[in-house]
Amino acid sequence: MRRDLGRHIYGYLISAAFALFLFSPILWTLSTSLKQPTEMFQWPPVIVGEPSAQHYTAIIADKDFSSALINSIVVSCSTIILTMALSIPAAFGISHLQKTAMRRLLTLVLALRAAPAMIYIIPYFLFFRQVHLVDTKIALIIVNTMFAVPLAIWYLSAFFDQVPREIEEAAMIDGASTLQTMTLISIPIAKYGILATAILIFIGSWNEFLFALTLTRDDAKIAAVAILNFMPFEGTDWGKAAAACVLMLVPIVVFVPFVKKYVAGPTTTGSVKG
Length: 274
Prior knowledge:
Layout: H1 2-33, H2 54-61, H3 63-95, H4 99-114, H5 121-130, H6 137-161, H7 165-173, H8 178-189, H9 191-207, H10 210-215, H11 223-226, H12 238-264
Helix pairs in contact: 1-12, 2-12, 3-6, 3-9, 4-6, 6-9, 7-8, 9-12
InterPro entries: BP-dep_ABC_trans_perm, MetI-like, MetI-like_sf
Keywords: Cell membrane, Membrane, Sugar transport, Transmembrane, Transmembrane helix, Transport
Organism: Mesorhizobium muleiense
């Protein structure tokens, strides 16, 4: 009994230490975003001082950052729409292949995504410069979609695999085409998995930095890159930078619990009558 109790306590202590290590930068950033300018560099550090929203007010009033935030929303939402339009039919088709062929095709799809993003920067920049799309949201949407589609196909094929084949076959016996079966049967059953995948794609596009830094200048700059405006060569405005980082975290904090719930749970719960 004592040995089991000791193991539980040890496990809790390790988990707490890991959680503290993982979340301490986020908590420190949140604390910094709420500090008064005079509290930024005090020693010993001020963990919880007199909260102030002045940094949030300042960045919202900043036209450059507000415009970049809107660009992030437009690019991320457009990436979701284009990615899902391409990935859902592909994933549906792959899930209906024979198991050996499906595994090989999925491995190839994932291998395309596994290559380091760094090797694509120069070719993509030269291509988009040639077609006059540098510093446009279209370029970012195209690049984000190209990197999102392989992962989306991988996720969605797993959700479509959970759709009972008996339901699809019954629909086809009743005269439904493959397209009708996908849109009227499989997609509604796998809707929560599709929504969870869409959220993961949104988060990936929302956090994308490397291509956004390379392919944008002013007009199409997104929020992840605009944070650098608060970190000029002369000196960093830590309050505004921290507030901008916290705003960037809001969609992730909102959406991640939903993704965890529906990715971990069964897709077809309640879809088949006993």
